Structure formats: structure tokens, C-alpha cells
Amino acid sequence: MSIAKPGxxxxxxxxxxxxxxxxxxxxxxxxxxxxxSIAVVAxxxxxxxxxxxxxxxLSPQFMSVVLRDTGRxxxxxxxxxxxxxxxxxxxxxxxxxxxxxxMMVLMSIAWGAPLWLGATVGIAIGVFVGLIxxxxxxxxxxxxxxxxxxxxxxxxxxxxxxxxxQPIIAPVEEPFNAIFxxxxxxxxxxxxxxxxxxxxxxxxxTVIVVAVLGVVLNRTSFGLHTIATGSNLIxxxxxxxxxxxxxxxxxxxxxxxxALAGVxxxxxxxxxxxxxxxxxxxxxxxxxxxxxxTSLIGGSGTVVGALIGAFVVATLNNGLVMVGAQATVSDIYxxxxxxxxxxxxxxxxxxxxxxxx
Amino acid sequence: MIGEDFxxxxxxxxxVLEMSHISKSFGPITALVDVSIKLRQGEVLxxxxxxxxxxSTLIKIVSGFHQPDAGTITVKGKPTRFxxxxxxxxxxxxxxxxxxxxxxxxxxxxxxxxxREYHKRVLGLSLLDNSKMRALAxxxxxxxxxxxxxxxxxxxxxxxxxxxxxxxxxxxxxxxxILVLDEPLAALGVRESAHVIGLIQNLRRxxxxxxxxxxxNYNQIFEVCDxxxxxxxxxxxxxxxxxxxxxxELIRIVRSGLGRGAVAGAAAGVGSGxx
Lengths: 357, 275
What we know:
The complex is a heterodimer. By secondary structure, chain A is an all-alpha fold. In chain A, 74% of the residues lie in helices and 1% in strands.
């Protein structure tokens, strides 16, 4: 900030400063209403694709696809937000996303266990993976970036070696599948039948989880201590917050949510694919969290923002294909969106630290 | 307020905190060697020493942040061992750390109640009672005469002085029996210093709270403290009541390396002491 431009005169500086305060005010507003600003982006994208696709984008059939992807990404992203607020990250979520439903389906096929039981076990596995990630990171002081890359390979290795890397057809059980959702809205049925609505239940699950985690983050001591842990680790410890436990719990939440997302995904597609959770999924979820306004240095983040971020990512992925772009082109836009939101995020963080002085 | 006379601490006042033969090392670095301090009811004890003398380590042992390698801690006659700051706080020991331990992203009132939040039941869930905490924080700050424009503001938007005041206000909110202050005046301007000194004087006047205070400024020691312990290279080398000594004497003693167990190099780093 103190770098003076060569040749700048005092008068010019004053103008420069005045403009800077306007920029600063804008950044302050953005930091305060992160969700609102990303919501504006989301709405603009929807309008653009709605026009570009001649009204096809907002059809129930297409929305079921966008919201299915939003739900899957959003569920992983919101749990990641809690963890990122503590200053940690979990890159193993895509491994958990694969292994949880795989266990569910194997239990069903091998032992005839009902899917709800397998789903419970699968989610418990996800929570357990989170526990391992948390304990190794916090107690053994391995950076979470490394710990979770390790567990990612470990989980991926386990899941592909169980069944020769083959997808397994999942048995269909009602009401299990109806509760967790159909893969697509049936174009033949009208939008308001039960079958058509179940195409949106995966998204509804995510909305429920977002609501719960939103309350946890903003209205409970656990949420307060989560923010404190990420914002000022030593200070939080000094005041008596058990920062290690807070981190471990958030790793467990992240693992549990990734497992739930995997179970829902398998219920939708009635198939457990060991390749379903590619590491790309993790990265997209983190992108969704960051686009939604979560800081990578910890201390701040919003779960609602992450859900909207997931919607933006899903809209870009699907909308660009719909308006006739190559599937690969959407990655270009996604890349730009990530970098742009990171620049914004870093600027807002920098502004905040500068304001501290 | 300067020069105000305080009733001296009674010689038979109970010892509320006694640390005996405390040693602490961090790997190869020895921070404290066989340090013993006594704090009596209502006393304000100054802990003086150079940077690196072990003051902060000592108070972090009192506050439960560090655990001693050897030695015993007795609080109100009971031998105690704090595994964490949480346990020390539960026993009525509050600490204002040098870094203040405030959370920049949280509001003033959340910081005030961090670790001991108020809750209300909503649909069977235990949720934060923000309106209660907000009101209590405001009342508490008003009582202390600390002007914070808005208790909803996040702490990172406040000035250094305001933050220091909030940290001190938080530490005395729960009426602790022992208060530990690590350089509470370090980052303050003249007016803000006077305010914090006023808060300490007020505690001292009522003799309800016993205070351990780390200070660098020798003026301030004689202004607010009853007794001085000088810590050098991990050992207490001088222990006297402020009424029995003077600023000049303290400086002379410290410079000449006198005092119990004085180390040869005691005088070397002292020049940096009074700022």
C-alpha cells in the first residue's frame, strides 16, 4: 500500500486515496454480505442461460439435473466450510464419497442387509475417516493438506481393490430410493407428482443440512468456538477453548456429510461406482465454498454462501453445455470464477488485516 | 489518582496463590528454574524482568496454558494442577495475555462471553442467548466506564486501546479471585493507560481480587503495585514491598545484580527494562 507510484503528485494522490476508500467501502460491503453478492452472480447466470437456451434452463427436467449436482456438491462444500473456518481442509472427501455407498451396497448384496442399515454404516465410516483425519492432523501435527491427501489415496485404493474396480448395481428398495431421490425428473409426468418431486429430494437433503449447519455455526457455542479456533488459534486456546476437539469434530462432520452425499448419489443412480468420487469432486466442492465466500486462511465462511457457490458451479457446468458450448469449455469459466473469487477473498482478508492496525 | 494512598495489605492476609519451586523447559531452552512466588489476598504483585526472563512462561503456568515440569501450585491452600486454561478459569483465575486472546472475527459481546456463553432453549436445542449477552456486555462496559461505540462490532474493527480495555473487562467480568495481567499497558497511549491503571487501582482499593501484573515501566509499578518480584534468567532475584523500596533503589539493585541468588550477568540486560 505504501508503494508510491513514480511521478505521482500530492493532488493525484488525494484522488487516488478517495477512490481507494470507495473501493474499500465496496469490499467492506462485500465482506459483510458475501451471500448476497454471490446470489446476484447466480441470478445473472440463470438469466443468461435461460435466454441462451430459449427457456429450457428453468424446465423441471433441466433444473432437476442442476439441483442434483448442486445438492451433491453443496453437501460436500458446506461441511468443508465448517472445517475451512477452523483453518483446516479435507481433500479426502471424494474418497469418503465413494467408499460409503460402496459399503452400503456390498452389505446389501453380501449379507442382505437393508439399505438404511448400510447407509448408516456408510455414514459412520465417513465420520470415522474424519476422526482419523482429525486426530492425525491435530495430535500428530501433520498439515491437513497432507493427511487428507494420504487418506484420499488410501480410501480410493481400498474401494477399487474390493471389487476389481467394477461398479455394483445397487438394489432398489422403497421407500429408501424415494427418500433419497430419483436421478432425473420424468419428462412425461407433470411437475407436481410424487415421482417428479423425488427428483428434487437430493437437493432438499442438502438444504436441510445447510439449515442445520447454519444454525450450528451461527447460533451455538460450537459454532462460536469453530470461528474462534480459525480466527485466532492461540487466543482461543488461551481463553480455554478446546481447539483440538473443535477441529476433530469438524473433520468428523466433513466426513459424515461426504458419506451422506455418496449414499444419496448411489440411491439416485442405483449403482455404486468406485470412480464416482473423483478428486475433481473435492476440488469443485472447495471451489464452491470459496466462491461462496469462505476464507482459505480460516476464521470466516458461510454455509449458505457455499450452497449458492455450489449452485453457481453446477449452473456453469450444465448451462454451458445446454447453450451449446463444449463440455470442456465450462472448466475454463469455472477456473476464471475460482480465481476471480479468490482475488476478491484475498482482497477482503487483506483489507480486514489492514484495518486491524 | 497518582500518589493515592492505599491501605496496605495486612501482613496476616491469606496467601491465595503459592507457586513453589516451579521449573519449566521447552526442549533445550530453560525458561524457569526453581521459581517460587506468593500472592496474598488483595495484593497487587508486580513481576518484573527482561524479555526472555520467564515472566510470560510463569503466568502461563498460573493460567493453565503451560504445565510445569516440576514444582507445586497451591490455590487458597489447596494443591492444584491445571491441565488447561479452562480449568484455571473454573477455579477463578482469569488471565489477560499479552496477545489479549480476542477473536477478531467475533463481536465484542461474543468475545466477552467466549468459553462461558449464555444459552436459551429453543425447540429443545441449546442456542446462544445473544440478546442477553449483548445487554450484559453493554452494562458491564458501562459500569467500568469503557466507551465502545457498538458491542455488535467485530473486535478487529476496534483500536488497540479499546481491545486492551475489552480484554481487561472480560477478565474481571466473572469476579475472579486471582487476576493475571501480562503487560496490560504495553500498547496503550497515555489516556488509555490511565484508564486501565484506574481499573486496577479500583480492584486494589477493594482488596477482593489478587493481581499478578507484568509491567515494564517502573513508574507504573510504584503507582499500582504492593510488591515487586524481579525475575532474571528464570529465577526470582529480588522480592520487596513497594513501600519498603523506591524506584531508585530498584534500579540500583537491579543494575548491581544484588538480591537473592543474583546471577553474575543480572545487570547486563537491565538497561532495556524501564522503557
